[in-house]
Structures are given as structure tokens and as C-alpha cells.
Design goal:
Elements lengths: L1 H7 L11 H34 L3 H29 L1 H18 L6 H18 L2 H11 L4 H30 L2 H21 L28 H12 L3 H16 L1 H14 L4 H26 L4 H18 L7 H14 L4 H46 L3 H19 L14
Length: about 425
């Protein structure tokens, strides 16, 4: 059959046997890293764009906010597109969109162009190259060690920020905002040939088995129908299960206590206690560095222990640390300990959450459902960013905001133990 001939030809170009799965992971890691770096770039561009064009900070930040929102919302639809058109086509299209949209911003002269480039288009593109992509790749290419690999891929988001932010800040100091947008566009474009040549659709397409499998894979045929309809219909069916709402609620709190609160307001919180901006930003960089190790370790633990108990531990310790922070002495030592600990715990929740989604909804539907869970994470982050700012304005400090956030962490810990591990796949027939 022609399809067989087409699949057999590339076998000689795929060395390492089943270990080729790690080549795929390496390329996807770079793609996720670039996506995370792109989403962190607006923070670097804020002041340079204000200086160059005289635009209000509110206008610039609103464009960034749209990008962040779409980064989370695009996930479930991207998962559906991957099922309909394939991983490689989806990633190639997303990288091209990221490269073109950021590159076009080089020529922008009006705020609406900033909104289109760094808000709408880059938000959709980067959202397709996010945690949902990692979950889909892991489910297809790995039978064993899924937690460890998912932890590594998840950690790329922190690594992307850690690598890109200092370099981009240096570029701004050297040549302003234009070299920054060209660099980001070039990095995204450089990944396109790597994905095209090194990322097959699935192991069976190149005559391989998924890593750890002892038998030939029997992949499901591509999903038929409208991928957007599939994303919505899977949400409707998943919403009928308790497991989905517990996962959604805990991940909402995850976003509430990380990106939305600490990631957005820690610098200002430290400023209220006399800590200069550079030192406070260094704490966030330290968190990003330790997050790489914490999330990878979390993946390793997820392969060996009950993911619900891991989530209980992560959220519980996170909640207690947030309650403790306002009452610390804000010395360099205490803040550094907080940064290291919080960095290790930052997105360590992702591997256990992905495993629970796989157990509850099956390998086929889990990426779609997890995409909606990630949307809950971004919603929680947006709520925390607004809520903490409101509390700061109303109360004059961040004390109550951090105390309430700590309490939500304790609530998430309790909810984690209430998640059933009874499979819910029969309720989620393929769309």
C-alpha cells in the first residue's frame, strides 16, 4: 500500500531505536522554551516601547494581557487541531505564526499593531506551543517514564524565561526594542526546520514503538470533524465529571498562587519593604532556576507515587509558605529561602495533574481536557493579578492578598485528595 511505503522510507533516518523518542522531546523542549521566552518578552519591551512611541503603559500592558489570556485559552483548541491535523503540522503552523507576528512588529507605528502582533497573533501561536503540546507528545511517544518527561517539558517554561529575560534585557540596553523583536522572531523561525525534519507524527510513522512499549502501537485514526467543535464537546462531556472540576479548581488556584500573585506582585511587595527592584527581580530569576529542578523531580516522583498525594503536598506547602511570607523579616536570607522553596514548587503540580487527567479521561481525550484545565490556570492567574492589585490599593499593603492566597493553597491541597482515580473514559467518547 502507498501509505506503507511512505512510512517505511524514513526508518533509516531515525537512529537510536526507541530512544529516538528523546530526540523528539529535545526538539519539543526547544519549541516550548521559545514559546515561554516569547510570552516573557512583553515585560522587557514595556519601558522601551513607552520611551520610543510615548504609549501609555496601560495600552502596552493590555496587549500583553491579551497575549497571556490567549496563551491559556488556545490550549484545548490546539489539542483538538493536533488530533485532526497532526502534531507536526500544528507546531509548524504555530512557530510560523509566532515568527511572522513578532517580526512584523518591527514595523509597527500604532498601538493597534502592537495589539495584533504581541497580543492576538502571538498569543494564539504561543498557546499552541505550550503544556498541552507537551502532554500530547508524551502520550504518543512514551509508555513508561511519562511523568519524568512531562516534568522536563514543563520545566522548559521556566527555563525559557530564565534564558531569554537576561539576554533580551541586554539587547534592549544595547540597541532598543527592535533587536529584541527580531531575535525572538529568528529563534522561532530557526525551530521550523528542526520540527519538520526531526519530529515524526508518531512512532509508528517511522517504524518505531513508543518508549517502553513491548508491542507495536495501534494509533487511533485522525479525528474527524471540526476541531473547534471537538474541543467544546469534550469540555461539555468532561464538565459532567467530578474529576474535571477538581482538576480545574486546583489548577485555578495554581495559577492564582504563582503567575498571578507572586509572578506579578512580588517585586511590588518587596518594594513595600524597602527592597530595590533589581534584587526583587533576582528572586524571580532564582525561582525560575530552581523550578527547572523541582518540576523535573516532580515528574520522577509522579511515576512512582500517588499523584493526588503529591498535589496535596505541593499545594499545602505552597499555601503555608504564602501565609508565612508577610510575617517574615524580609531579609536577604529569608527571601532567598522562600525563592528557592517556591521555585521548586512553582509548576511541580503539572506532572501529577497530567497523570490524573490521563487516568480519568484516557490518553486520547486527556490532552483536550488538560487544555481546559490549563485555561483554568490562566483564569486563576488573571484573577490574582487583579485581586492583589485591588487589595493593595484598598488596604495599603499586600498582607491580606497573600494570606487569602495561602488559604486557597490549603483548600487546593484538600481538594486534591478528593479527586477520584476511577476512569471516566466511557463518558468521553471521541468527538
Amino acid at each position: 500500500m502507498p501509505s506503507t511505503a511512505l512510512q517505511a522510507a524514513p526508518v533509516s533516518r531515525r537512529p537510536f531505536g526507541q530512544n529516538y523518542a528523546f530526540v523528539v522531546v529535545a526538539v519539543i523542549f526547544l519549541a516550548l522554551l521559545a514559546s515561554a521566552g516569547l510570552r516573557a518578552t512583553p515585560g522587557v519591551l514595556m519601558l522601551p516601547l513607552q520611551s520610543a512611541f510615548g504609549w501609555d503603559v496601560g495600552v502596552i500592558s493590555s496587549s500583553a494581557a491579551v497575549g497571556i489570556f490567549l496563551y491559556g485559552l488556545a490550549g484545548p483548541f490546539a489539542a483538538a487541531v493536533m488530533q485532526r491535523f497532526g502534531i507536526r503540522r500544528t507546531v509548524l503552523g504555530a512557530l510560523a505564526l509566532m515568527s511572522v507576528s513578532t517580526g512584523m512588529s518591527y514595523f509597527m507605528t500604532a498601538p493597534w499593531q502592537l495589539f495584533m502582533s504581541w497580543g492576538l497573533l502571538s498569543g494564539i501561536g504561543s498557546g499552541a506551543v505550550a503544556n498541552v503540546l507537551g502532554a500530547t507528545v508524551v502520550n504518543r511517544w512514551f509508555t513508561t517514564n511519562r511523568g519524568l518527561v512531562m516534568g522536563l517539558l514543563t520545566a522548559s517554561t521556566a527555563t525559557g524565561t530564565l534564558i531569554f529575560m537576561p539576554g533580551l534585557a541586554a539587547l534592549v540596553a544595547w540597541g532598543g526594542w527592535k533587536p529584541v523583536v527580531l531575535t525572538v522572531a529568528a529563534c522561532c523561525a530557526a525551530l521550523i526546520p528542526l520540527v519538520y525534519f526531526l519530529v515524526p507524527e508518531r512512532p509508528a510513522a517511522v517504524g518505531l514503538r513508543s518508549y517502553g512499549s513491548t508491542h507495536d502501537d495501534q494509533p487511533a485514526p485522525p479525528a474527524a470533524g471540526n476541531p473547534f467543535t471537538a474541543a467544546i464537546s469534550n469540555l461539555v462531556r468532561a464538565a459532567r465529571t467530578r474529576a474535571f472540576w477538581f482538576l480545574f479548581a486546583t489548577f485555578f488556584i495554581c495559577g492564582f498562587t504563582t503567575n498571578g500573585l507572586v509572578g506579578t506582585h512580588l517585586i511590588a511587595f518587596c518594594g513595600d519593604h524597602g527592597i530595590v527592584e533589581v534584587q526583587a527581580a533576582g528572586l524571580l530569576a532564582l525561582m525560575g532556576f530552581f523550578d527547572l529542578f523541582g518540576t523535573t523531580l516532580s515528574g520522577w516522583l509522579t511515576d512512582r507515587f500517588d499523584p493526588r498525594k503529591l498535589l496535596f503536598l505541593y499545594y499545602g506547602l505552597r499555601g503555608l509558605s504564602l501565609i508565612y511570607l508577610p510575617y517574615s523579616d524580609f531579609s536577604l536570607a529569608s527571601l532567598s529561602v522562600f525563592a528557592v522553596f517556591y521555585g521548586l514548587d512553582w509548576i511541580a503540580t503539572v506532572p501529577p495533574t497530567v497523570r490524573i487527567a490521563n487516568e480519568a479521561f484516557g490518553d486520547k481525550n486527556a490532552p483536550l481536557v488538560f487544555g481546559w484545565v490549563v485555561a483554568g490556570h490562566q483564569l486563576g492567574a488573571a484573577c490574582a493579578a487583579f485581586f492583589a492589585g485591588f487589595m493593595r490599593s484598598a488596604q495599603g499593603d499586600y498582607l491580606q492578598a497573600f494570606m487569602i492566597a495561602g488559604a486557597t493553597g490549603i483548600i487546593a491541597a484538600v481538594l486534591s485528595l478528593m479527586i477520584t482515580r476511577r476512569p471516566a473514559q466511557p463518558m468521553l467518547a471521541a468527538a
